Amino acid sequence: MDFKGKVALITGGKRIGLVVAGELAARGVDVALSYARSRAEAEQAAERVRAAGRRTAIMQADLSQPEACDAIVAAAVEQLARLDILINMASVYVRRPFDELRAADWDAVIDVDLRAAFLCARAAAPHMRRQGGGRIINFSDWVARSGRPRYAGYLPYYVAKSGVIGLTEALALELAPDNILVNAIAPGPIVAPPGTTDEESKSVEQATPLGRWGGELEIAKAVAALLDSDFITGEIIRVDGGRHVK
Predict the structure, then answer these.
(1) pLDDT tens-digit profile of 178-226?
(2) Which of 54, 81, 179, 244 is the most buried if burial means most Cβ atoms within 10 Å?
(3) DSSP designation for 236
(4) Cα distance between residue 27 and residue 24, in whole Å
(5) Residue 194: its pLDDT value, please?
């Protein structure tokens, strides 16, 4: 893909999304960003895009609501005139013991991590067809990609991220005739979640063959590589420093 003049929509524009937005803008991409609550982070991402000389748009959306998925795609196209790239990064990541799980907890994760990825892809596909093709990148997790749960307390999250793998493969097949390539990234230890102690951080480093956290830029590099390829689709790429082999 020639990046120059393309338009991307990123759902979930904080932390890793902020860096991805900046890197895409540096390559000539205009970037729309949606956020649920983190407006300050979305504004920071938008500022990085503008600093690179590219256009940007930000919109607040609760992607647990189906109509919101259609709305952000429509808003991105209205404000930036086209849509070539969809990056589904929005996610709910909350630890809750099994005996405390309620139906609402299940829905809160599944609706955003899995259903919203499908609905945003469904809304984006017609616009990509008009451009002669496009790219969709979903986000799974290294644990789900490894095929077995490792951490108790994240049952809906694991199921949702496993579902993202199936969604990615099925979408790749469905959309291949339209030259829309669909892949997923399965991050491992990229950045420590808020509240991580020094001891916990070091434990992750010790469990990772490369011996360190990856940093947000490694995800941005993987995104760019998948966008650049014209012949990779239906793949789930782990970016985990070898964590899955240890």
Answers:
(1) 999 999 999 999 999 888 999 999 999 999 999 999 999 999 999 999 9
(2) 54
(3) E
(4) 5
(5) 83
Mind listing the pLDDT tens digit for each residue in 33-42? 999 988 999 9
- Reduced to 3 states, what is the DSSP secondary structure of residue 161? helix
The first and second tokens of residue 214, run together, are: 């990856």
171: exposed, middle or buried (Cβ count in 10 Å: 0-12, 13-18, 19+)? buried
157 is known as an active-site residue: yes
| Helices and strands: H and E segment counts in the chain | 9, 7
Domains of the chain plus CATH, in order, are 7-245 (3.40.50.720)
The three-state DSSP-derived secondary structure of 29-78 is CEEEEEECCCHHHHHHHHHHHHHCCCCEEEEECCCCCHHHHHHHHHHHHH
By residue count, the chain amounts to 246
Residue 229 backbone phi and psi in degrees, to 5: -75, 140
Q: What H or E segment, with its residue span, contains residue 9? A: strand 7-11
Q: What is the largest CA-CA distance in the chain?
A: 51
